[in-house]
């Protein structure tokens, strides 16, 4: 018979690992801070296309010399939407932070500077778009509200579905695991100096659902094992057996998803698709964190709650008494 892994006995190690990562993330957050994308903090984006290879430092100097009064940044991606049969087609997105819109003469000055500096690269102006800082803040708040509502609804669902094993404790610890996963994704953005944009919200919502699914699978197995073992069984042993029995499935599912997302990330690297990279990389971190938190954070915390409060034993006692009668 396969020996169960002692998740509860090693819970202090698991908690220590998570706390250490969170501490490192907080330190990096204090040192580097967090960067918001223009869609959240406001600003203007001007898009160009060009062909061939260019020196990025020379490009930066050309843009900055054409707009000395503005602080700008830019990103370069492979122009896969280019209609020409040119494998060396690229797109450059120039970002201007602030509330003031960029005048047409400023854009014309940038276009002229790029055409003069890189005459052989066929620079062409595509479009520009502006976002007010107040609108960006409202958008960010709406996104965070969506995350909060999704989290609360999921906890309510877990509380109702698993009331026989202490629904409130199961729901609260599932929420703690979700906060753990969101923190891991956030600190990844901070450590890698990636601006927080709509991809961050999309990743968080997807990982919340993914992580909760793993947690529900484990809770479902715990509920079944609890019913079979009876109210006198130690809930730590019940959880260890339940988590060990589904661990292979959970890890296999996570690895399969990681391979798929990893493939997307590699393709994005090859074609220099920064928007896809900023989605795929946090997704991979979130998948690993979601698998880890379901097995090593939510479950051990649930056992700790029930052992100290005695709720786990009480939850099954009435059922057992009815069976005896």
TrEMBL record:
InterPro entries from the UniProt entry: SecD/SecF_arch_bac (IPR022813), SecD/SecF_bac (IPR022645), SecD_SecF_C (IPR048634), SecF_bac (IPR005665)
GO molecular function, one term: protein-transporting ATPase activity
Ranges that cross the membrane: 12-32, 139-160, 172-192, 198-219, 251-273, 279-305
Domain Protein export membrane protein SecD/SecF C-terminal: 120-307
Biological-process GO terms, alphabetical: intracellular protein transmembrane transport; protein targeting; protein transport by the Sec complex
Subcellular localization(s) per the UniProt record: Cell membrane
GO cellular component, one term: plasma membrane
Stored Gene3D superfamilies: Multidrug efflux transporter AcrB transmembrane domain
Domain of life: Bacteria
Membrane topology field: Multi-pass membrane protein
Location (main, coarse): membrane
Keyword field: Cell membrane, Membrane, Protein transport, Translocation, Transmembrane, Transmembrane helix, Transport
Quaternary context: Forms a complex with SecD. Part of the essential Sec protein translocation apparatus which comprises SecA, SecYEG and auxiliary proteins SecDF. Other proteins may also be involved.
Reported function: Part of the Sec protein translocase complex. Interacts with the SecYEG preprotein conducting channel. SecDF uses the proton motive force (PMF) to complete protein translocation after the ATP-dependent function of SecA.
Similarity section: Belongs to the SecD/SecF family. SecF subfamily.
Identification of the protein by name: Protein-export membrane protein SecF
